From TrEMBL:
Keywords: Hydrolase
NCBIfam families named among the record's database cross-references: PRK09256.1
Superkingdom per UniProt: Bacteria
Domain Prokaryotic-type class I peptide chain release factors stretches: 8-134
Keyword Hydrolase (UniProt): yes
Organism: Glycomyces rhizosphaerae
Enzyme Commission number(s) from the entry: 3.1.1.29
PANTHER family: PEPTIDYL-TRNA HYDROLASE ARFB
Stated name of the protein: Alternative ribosome rescue aminoacyl-tRNA hydrolase ArfB
Keyword rRNA processing: no
Enzyme class name: hydrolase
Family named by the database record: Belongs to the prokaryotic/mitochondrial release factor family.
Biased composition range(s): Basic residues: 108-119, 127-139
């Protein structure tokens, strides 16, 4: 089952590697016999699914999460291996969605309006008056 990142981008199963191990989380007696912990490995640098520009953006944004061009997602919060697989796929999709998202538009710097400056100074003056009333008059 492919991982749906966006409406147009889906990562096929052939580009995903799975590893399973015993989880230290919940599971009762079955925790010692079932390989419910899941690690999902996706090679971002070597993928054919994403365009080169998105690969560069993802590698730059993920930084330390990427080891040898691959990102590893671990899931062990559920007792079932199937639910942990689903959780890992959801996490990978969300991670990639954020990593390949277009950068926000640059902010144009603006000056505060005259009214905003006036209100700020009035508030400062009012606050100063309040604090003056709290001072002791023993001097």
């Amino acid at each position: 089952m492919p991982v749906q990142v966006t409406e147009t981008i889906a990562i096929p199963d052939s580009e995903l590697r799975w590893r399973f191990s015993r989880s230290s989380g919940p599971g009762g007696q079955g925790v010692n016999t079932t390989d419910s912990r899941v690690e999902l490995v996706f090679d971002i640098a070597g993928t054919k699914t994403l365009p080169p520009a998105l690969i560069e953006r993802a590698l730059a944004r993920l930084g330390d999460r990427v080891v040898d061009g691959a990102v590893v997602i671990a899931a062990s919060e559920f007792r079932s291996q199937l639910r942990n697989r689903e959780a890992a796929m959801e996490r990978l999709a969300e991670l990639l969605r954020r990593a390949i998202a277009a950068p926000p538009p640059t902010r144009r710097a603006t000056k505060p309006s005259k009214g905003a400056k006036r209100r700020r100074l009035e508030d400062k003056r009012r606050r100063s008056d309040v604090k003056k009333l709290r001072r002791s008059t023993d001097d």
